[in-house]
UniProtKB/TrEMBL annotation:
Name by which UniProt lists this protein: Phosphoenolpyruvate--protein phosphotransferase
Organism in which the protein naturally occurs: Photobacterium chitinilyticum
UniProt subcellular location: Cytoplasm
Gene assigned in the entry: ptsP
Highest taxon of source: Bacteria
Family listed: Belongs to the PEP-utilizing enzyme family.
Portion held of the full protein: 356 to 680 of 829
């Protein structure tokens, strides 16, 4: 079996009927990248850069960050590397920023919301990414975007740092694609507007599930209510993918849901272009994928969207899996 899995690692991800879906890896630091590509990753779908800022006494400077991003891009060769700007605050505190204690940190001061106050920190990261982008296929992704104003502000900051870099005669890439995490439910209703601002989307199923269903992702007392198979979640997925595709934008998914083999038929059926997951799951996912028929997955997904309950979606998935065997 191990040999068989090994073959999948080296083959492109596609369904039995030949539909290609990019299977990418989530990483938290550049030294995780080689193992991800050995498992068959076709790109890095989420580089959680906040890990580089945590458990230390001050932020990494521009050159240190440049080194990490460049390393990941070089390991990836020409494959895409989606570098997500820092997602701190909420469940990811950082001592040296002295962020306030909050009653509802998940609804509070985190990610893109703190960038205007910590402008130098944000600019430093953008500069490091744009400089590193010369060495590979980099994309920038912004976490916790909620409004058009926020993404427009981010784009202004990108222009400002590009001008700085040009004036300093530093090598950088001016054409790095920009995307957003779709992890706040309101964004799902205005994807058409966001299509005018960004190049791609990645659904953060961890936060999207928490916010869509109003269930704290870390609270054991309500863990039973935390389930991404909720029909409302599936309809959200459907709406985001369809709208983005109508406007010629691609959509990935980078939360834990992507690593759940049972759910894969639904993610394929929804029409996602890319699924990013923790590296150890990649080979298995490619092996599962090649047994699926994309048209059957589409029908299954449409049926799941019409289910009244999570239990009905689960039964639908179990029956479909049993029919496959
Ligand atoms: C998510 O919210 O699904 C996600 C991928 O981001 P994080 O888990 O880092 O919040
Ligand atoms: Mg998130």
């Amino acid at each position: 079996l191990n040999d068989e899995l090994h073959t999948f690692a080296s083959q492109p991800a596609r369904t039995a009927d030949g539909k290609m879906i990019e299977i990418a890896a989530n990483i938290a630091c550049s030294f995780e990248a080689p193992a991800a590509f050995e498992k068959g990753a076709e790109g890095i779908g989420l580089f959680r850069t906040e890990m580089l800022f945590m458990e230390r006494s001050k932020a990494p400077d521009e050159d240190e960050q440049f080194g990490y991003y460049r390393e990941a891009l070089e390991v990836a060769a020409d494959k895409p590397v989606i570098i997500r700007t820092i997602d701190i605050g909420g469940d990811k505190p950082i001592d040296y920023l002295n962020l306030p204690q909050e009653n509802n940190p998940f609804l509070g001061y985190r990610a893109v919301r703190i960038y205007p106050e910590f402008l130098a920190l944000f600019h430093t990261q953008l500069r490091a990414i744009l400089r590193a982008a010369v060495h590979g296929n980099a994309k920038i992704m912004i976490p916790m975007i909620q409004s058009i104003e926020e993404i427009r502000w981010v784009k202004q900051q990108l222009e400002i740092v590009k001008e700085q870099l040009a004036q300093e005669s530093l090598a950088f890439s001016a054409e790095v694609p920009l995307g957003i995490m779709v992890e706040i439910p309101s964004v799902a209703f205005i994807v058409d507007q966001f299509c005018k601002e960004v190049d791609f989307f990645s659904i953060g199923s961890n936060d999207m599930t928490q916010y869509l269903l109003a269930v704290d992702r870390d609270n054991a007392s309500v863990a039973k209510l935390y389930n991404s198979l909720a029909p409302a979640f599936l309809r959200m997925l459907s709406q985001v993918v369809q709208t983005a595709h109508q406007h010629g934008r691609w959509v990935g998914l980078c939360g834990e849901l992507g690593a759940d083999a049972k759910v894969l038929p639904l993610l394929i059926g929804a029409g996602l272009d890319e699924i990013s997951m923790s590296a150890p799951k990649i080979t298995e996912t490619k092996a599962t994928l090649c047994k699926l028929n994309s048209e059957d997955c589409k029908t299954l997904f449409e049926q799941a969207c019409q289910c009244p309950t999570i239990a009905d979606v689960q039964t639908l998935l179990e029956n479909a899996a049993a029919n496959q065997e």
